[in-house]
Amino acid sequence: MSGVAIVTGGTRGIGLAIARALIRDGHTVCAIYHGNEDAARKFETETGGKTFKVDVSNYADCARGVKDISDALGDIAVLVNNAGITRDAVLHKMDPDAWHAVIETNLTSCFNMSRAVIGGMRDRGYGRIVSISSINGQKGQFGQTNYSAAKAGMIGFTKALALESAAKGVTVNAVCPGYIATDMTSAMRQEVLDSIIKQIPVARMGHPEEIADVVAFLASDRAGFITGATLSANGGQYMA
Ligand code: CAA
């Protein structure tokens, strides 16, 4: 069922590729962004999709944003919780701001956004929620206690909400990308990134489109029997 699809963090990186794939599949796509106005304008010009500015870490702003989107575009059929940040540091050097920023932007955002759309999806008997977790939520990663905790939390959140939603026609799944070529990974120190690429059996980083196609499938009618799943796309780096 095509309808309005919201992609948080949808104007750049993996989110942009997901937005493009959902547009290709016939959805009316709304990309949520937070700070980067240039990327938002570029997204609208290049894809024909819409953008809305919402702070996904803020409960009231998510409620307001989802209402604005459905008033402007229609009922929400698909939510992709993709927005995420890193504030990498070893725990003995991590300040509380780095902990809270990552937990609130990456994990609390899933509550905020899902809470805003779930009532409508249940009432209509249809919905698709896909959350972008990470290989580092599955296996843990040196320097990422905050990020690994948030991404692991998304997996538990997905399973619990899938149980609550299954009888109402709403599926809830998590996708765990490995290391994908985006601004987030290009911000890493080159020698650290090189050492990680050596651990990837396919011997390369992933492309955003290789995650987007997984999400587009989970967001489609064809995936109605898949719920509560954690789907890895990591080049064989970690087999959960
Ligand atoms: N395992 C064991 N030891 C390690 C290690 C590892 N994976 N990585 C580093 N160490 C060791 C180092 O060898 C070093 O030891 P010595 O002091 O004995 O030389 C010590 O730990 C300190 O390491 P750093 O010099 O790297 O410490 P730092 O404080 O300068 O940097 C860091 C810390 C910024 C977290 C850095 O280690 C780093 O960038 N790590 C990678 C984090 C990462 O993978 N981020 C992913 C971002 S992309 C993403 O998150 C997307 C996704 O979903 C995949």
How would you describe this protein?
The chain has 240 residues and is of the alpha/beta class. It has a single domain (4-233), classed as NAD(P)-binding Rossmann-like Domain (Rossmann fold), CATH 3.40.50. Helix content is 48%, strand content 16%. The protein is built from 9 helices and 7 strands; from the N terminus they run E-H-E-H-E-H-E-H-E-H-H-E-H-H-H-E. The chain has helices at 13-24, 37-47, 59-73, 96-124, 135-139, 145-165, 183-186, 190-197, 208-218, and strands spanning 4-8, 28-33, 50-53, 76-81, 127-132, 170-177, 230-233. A 7-stranded parallel beta sheet has the order 3-2-1-4-5-6-7, sandwiched between helices. Strand 1, helix 1 and strand 2 form a beta-alpha-beta unit. Helix 1 (13-24) packs across helix 9 (208-218) and helix 4 (96-124) packs parallel to helix 6. The two termini are 31 Å apart. The mean pLDDT is 97. The protein binds acetoacetyl-coenzyme A (CAA).
How would you describe this structure in keywords?
240 residues, Rossmann fold, seven-stranded parallel sheet, 9 helices, globular, binds acetoacetyl-coenzyme A
Order of helices and strands: EHEHEHEHEHHEHHHE
End-to-end separation in angstroms reads 31 Å
Q: Name the CATH class.
A: Alpha Beta
Gross geometry = globular
The quaternary organization reads as single chain
